[in-house]
Amino acid sequence: MTEVLFYHLERRSLEDVLPVLLMKTLERGWRAVVQVGSPERLEALNRHLWSFDEDSFLPHGSREDGYAELQPIWLTEGEDNPNGSQIRFLVDGAVMGDVSAYLRAVHIFDGRDEIALARARDDWKRARSAGHDVTYWQQNNAGRWERKA
Questions:
Q1: Number of domain units in the chain
Q2: Which of 64, 68, 120, 124 could form a disulfide with 109 if both were Cys (CB 3.0 to 4.6 A apart)?
């Protein structure tokens, strides 16, 4: 059974949250695939992951880079998993398909965006109906994550 986590952004941006979650993924020895909703967003995240911290970077690639099997983090617009990831991140309008092949799926959405909020609700219902272990996380006033459901 796949664990599906929903992260409701309210106080921090995706650019702040995603690199931290990806670093934790790599620390556990897992590979990740990050599915985005558009080619423009893929390119923006690609640039951001190389430069988000002047003291480090997150090794990653996309179709343009090739060598998918060597990439610990793969950026895509599709449902592909060419690097054998255990974790799938869904961001910026990515549509959640069948995630049963993963240990964990992480849906990160902007709670200030009504369309993203509605999509997350639909994905929550589908994940629950599919029998996945679903949890919902929201940022508190201090910016820390609290499990809400």
A1: 1
A2: 120
